[in-house]
Amino acid sequence: MKPPRHSLVKSVLKDMYNPYAEASGCSTRSRTLDSQMYGVGEPSQGRADRADSAPALPVRSSAIAENAGLVPKIAHVSATECPPINNMGKNLEGAQSEHWESVCEEDFGEVELVLTGKGETKTLLVRLPSSAQCCVIDWLNFTVSEDTWSKTAGRTLITDEEYIEEASRQLEKIFGFGITTHRSLKLNWYADSWVLGDGMGLIGFGKQNRTMLVMLSGQGCMSALADWEKRLYEFLTQVAIRPSISRIDLAHDDFDGSYLSVDWAYQQWKDDGCSFKKGGRPPEIQKLGNWDRPSGKGRTVTIGQRVSSKFCRFYEKGKKEGDKESNWCRCEVEFKNTNTVIDPLILLNPSKFFVGAYPCFTAFRTTETPARMTVKARAQHITVDDSIAITKRQFGKYIRVFRALFGDQETLDLITNSDENAFPKRMKPFLSFHDSGPVPIHKQVKPDSPDFIHFPSSPPFFGLSGERARL
Q1: Predicted structure pTM score
Q2: Which string of b and e fits 38-60 if b means at least 16 CB within 10 Å?
């Protein structure tokens, strides 16, 4: 008997999976079909822990990797010393502590070390020792499986609304703010999106391999409750199912421009300070703004490509905020998981990853970056002064005449916006905090419905009839 043809087997399998394929177009229908096929009683073993076949972050010790020939012997070696310090300047008990040694710094770079569950070879970001907190987290994107929220809720969730409410409840515990507003717009190929806090970030949900995307903006990183990095690290490593950090930005500020400038960055690129291997092809560079005749609007240097796994920018932030005389310069490194695996330890020890980004960044290893609130206060001061100057230049003549006609108080009443919640867009970040903005979705009061249309939002956790479901 001849073996069946591959095309015939493929056709039979396609017919078998058609019902599930049709249902997977909508996440709610897909979950409903899952509940019909596998039941909604006790949670499956796969939801309790990450599946062995698809680990979120492949882990391999340095010793094993070195013996396998996957990493050069001059690369970093870990030991259990020196308790780590997070970017808030506090020691974190219970976190993994490390000590790093370097033999040849020019060979420090991204080393091929892990193989993902999809068979893709990815690299791990390199860390170098840093005695100072030389950076802060300025942006963060991460994804988790939607089963994470069923796990935290202790029951099987079905509808999108249930998932969003549970995610809002857990994110509020981590950041101090939850999910507030439904945008009804697509986001990064997710079918739907919501606002996180008072404009602190965005949430993407729907389709996309049954995951949820959490985007924490720079404003969200600055306004979140203290020690949110430690709480998020514990959530991703101990609670979440299939977690993955897809993007993280690290920032370093020099208010006075005493050692950091766009000219310094350009010179470092020319001197191969951004290349790990001498003689290799240097990363791409772009110079933006008026370099020949600086106009006070600010200049920028970008190193690398925006679509790559590592991208760096230096820019004159003080001038960007509106102060033409400011020397404030900022350096930002953007890591993405395009070809790399971003270790959650970056939440606890961002400075080590920042210093290891480029050879020239070893100059920052002993330099403290200003705290988030100090940066926020400096930016606020510049913005307020610039806003006053703009108002005086554009409307000062009118206001002077109005004061003469109506007096000060009546003039203010006439020209002031009647909406108490109206703020200029550029000043809104300085007036937003973790407890400001709309009420989170999980705390919003739902309208009452007549008793005869009340239905359970999801099946009982212990079987449809209330008793423990049989296997």
Answers
A1: 0.72
A2: ebbbeeeeebeebeeeeebbeee
